[in-house]
Amino acid sequence: MKKSVIALAALVSVNAWSAMTPYQQQLSDKLDPSKAPSENFEMEKWKINLPIGDNKPERAGKEMEITAAELNNVNYPYVHPQWFYTDAQTGAMVFAAPNTGPTTPNSKNTRSELRAMLDTTQAYQYKAPATNFAVASHPQASEFGAIGGRLSAALTVDAVSQSGDDKKMGAFASVIGQIHGSDNEPLKIYYRKLPNHTHGSLFWNYEINPKDKKDRFDISHDVFGIHDLQKSDANPEDGILLGELFEYEVNIVGTVMKLEFTKNPGEANEIKKNFEVDLAKAYPGQEKLDTSYGSDWMYYKAGAYNQCNQGSSGCENKGIEAGDYTQASFYKLELAQ
């Protein structure tokens, strides 16, 4: 089954194995292609949501949710042959999501995405302090599962939807890392590639955290490439190819969110770009609306969160063979909290 999924993905993605850099090969050598993701990666503090219907009676009609205990089952570690599996050649952990399918309650977009659960004994207590983290400024910071923490990843984006409205930001895009707050998101890391471009753009968004939800909006930050390109724009030559390895690290120290993105990691032409945001302060220039995330609770997410849907993004859903899905392969994923 795994071979058939990989074959379908190859229709619209780059063969990562044939294009491996020495550093990527080093990461791959640490992974066993015959093992489940949780046997190659430390996943004791993660659960995962998948773009299929759940088979548990208590979750009838909802998207599939696999708890940390199920994900790390010693005898039967969780694998889904189409949406979450180990690449049979590279050993990478593969996340894939179609343009249409079951979604989480507050989203129109499908996902194959991990959600950090710092207290895995409370499998469904998503709002419990012990399950989440806070920054040092939180009045009850000591009650949380962690104060700050670090998430680092090395990955390739192998596919993004081949259909969509290029004037819509969600079209041709996937979120491959997040920090989610109780309502809004101080961090979403995006990869977006238009079908007529060879390179895609890597960027991140900060969503202001206002008192009234109607006032919220995202502030985009370009990393490699440009976030709001349309088909008529020039190819972002400084961007990232499908199947090309890159890295990101998110490190919250005290109240400061530190971001580092690396293109050509481990190579002579390595390029790093860094950003910092103090989450205990309103985003600069947005003091009238942004209340900051200084008193909020948060959690990390990683995987493939498909931003292309048949509603707001104008995407079609003709199936994987037609390229209407997204896929990312992680060679490293480390959570330190």
Automatic annotation (TrEMBL):
<feature type="domain" description="Alginate lyase 2">
    <location>
        <begin position="41"/>
        <end position="335"/>
    </location>
</feature>
<dbReference type="InterPro" id="IPR014895">
    <property type="entry name" value="Alginate_lyase_2"/>
</dbReference>
<dbReference type="GO" id="GO:0016829">
    <property type="term" value="F:lyase activity"/>
</dbReference>
<dbReference type="InterPro" id="IPR013320">
    <property type="entry name" value="ConA-like_dom_sf"/>
</dbReference>
<dbReference type="Pfam" id="PF08787">
    <property type="entry name" value="Alginate_lyase2"/>
</dbReference>
<keyword id="KW-0732">Signal</keyword>
<protein>
    <submittedName>
        <fullName>Polysaccharide lyase family 7 protein</fullName>
    </submittedName>
</protein>
<feature type="signal peptide">
    <location>
        <begin position="1"/>
        <end position="18"/>
    </location>
</feature>
<keyword id="KW-0456">Lyase</keyword>
